[in-house]
């Protein structure tokens, strides 16, 4: 997971430099940003934050380790080669699927709808709409003043909030109502800042719309049965 990410990243930066590309927009991840056990719950997660590499290694969190190391390699190579690099750090991406198959991000939601998850975890997750991630890339390509990293996130929700939203819009599915951890206090969402992207004019899609669009796409792609009584028209959800 780590080696291809680092080598592949360096190859692209080198190729961009040789081709005299004016700007490279690199898709990193929240995984390179927030995995830090020493961060206080009151601290705001923003573009200055980096995941703790030793902590990632010790906990065998190779996804976050790989994302952080790959992004650091991108910055180092860009400086060395004189490449104008800008980075997007998306959180978990939801919304309509391009492909016919289900990816890891969407399984995160699908399991609460198809009966495979009987309970929800006592944990939190940040979400963003796929169209907002795409638009963020375009904004960073087209805005000369854009620089550094850009955290791409709309909301942080507890899993309990996720299943409540899903149950409200799609009560016909076997959505879990119990937490798998009822002994410990409910985990609190972490604070984050998406102000840098907002300053460029990005208006984030509400997380409820993200969840709704995800389920509609799963129905359209045949991954979920479509209820007979369900209305055909799309719904625009107000924040």
Automatic annotation (TrEMBL):
Highest taxon of the lineage: Eukaryota
Protein name: Cinnamoyl-CoA reductase 1
UniProt source species: Citrus sinensis (Sweet orange)
């Amino acid at each position: 997971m780590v080696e291809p990410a680092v080598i592949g990243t360096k190859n692209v930066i080198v190729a961009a430099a040789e081709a005299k590309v004016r700007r490279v927009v690199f898709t990193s991840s929240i995984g390179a940003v927030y995995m830090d056990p020493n961060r206080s719950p009151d601290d705001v997660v923003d573009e200055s934050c980096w995941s703790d590499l030793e902590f990632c290694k010790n906990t065998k969190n190779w996804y976050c380790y790989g994302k952080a190391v790959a992004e650091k390699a991108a910055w180092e190579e860009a400086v060395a080669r004189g490449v104008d690099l800008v980075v997007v750090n998306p959180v978990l991406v939801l919304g309509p699927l391009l492909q016919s198959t289900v990816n890891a991000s969407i399984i995160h939601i699908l399991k609460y709808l198809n009966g495979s998850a009987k309970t929800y975890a006592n944990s939190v997750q940040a979400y963003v709409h796929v169209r907002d991630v795409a638009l963020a890339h375009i904004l960073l390509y087209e805005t000369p003043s854009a620089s550094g990293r850009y955290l791409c996130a709309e909301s942080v929700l507890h899993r309990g909030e996720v299943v409540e939203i899903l149950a409200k819009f799609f009560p016909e599915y076997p959505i879990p109502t119990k937490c798998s951890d009822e002994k410990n206090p409910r985990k609190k969402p972490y604070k984050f800042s998406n102000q840098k992207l907002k300053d460029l004019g990005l208006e984030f899609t509400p997380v409820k719309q993200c969840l709704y669009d995800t389920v509609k796409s799963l129905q359209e792609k045949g991954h979920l049965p479509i209820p007979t009584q369900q209305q055909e028209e799309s719904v625009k959800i107000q924040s």
